Fold:
Amino acid sequence: MEIRTPCVVSLTWKLADAQNRPLDELTEPVEFFYGGDDLLTKVEEALEGHESGDELQLQLEPADAFGDYRPELVCFEERKLFAEPVEAGMAYEGLPKGHATPDMPADAVYIVTEVYPSHVVLDGNHPLAGMALRLRVQVRAVREATEPEVEARSVGDSTVTVLGSAPGKPGRQTLH
Structure:
């Protein structure tokens, strides 16, 4: 079966930065809804018309992946606003109550990048924002989408979201 909207594709991939340093690898196939919200637009465009067994290599510029890095999405908040323990790498949906930066997006996922005795540094950018990426994707299977999948424009709550983590999709910003 050829990949056409709407269908479900089962994929594996290797993701690297522009210097070919590995960033992520999905070795076990995972299903994604094709023609909806599960995949980045450039990935969908590249997959169009392919079949099970095909392998593609893509170069994704920041605009085609997770956007440019926006320094205005970095903020400093008082450490006392966070429950202990707080450490680098932790993620928060939105800023804590009583935060001091009212112009920050309320629906962003913020990653703790640094912890100091008096404050915490939070970054609302996707971890891969501003990066050109190289993606080698393998199509493992293609099937027709079910009616509930078509209505939801997704196969559901996949724990693997790197390819569907397009800017503006809060809550879908983890790798896996």
Observations:
- The helical segments are 41-47, 147-152.
- Residues 7-66+130-155 form a domain with the Chitinase A; domain 3 fold (CATH 3.10.50.40).
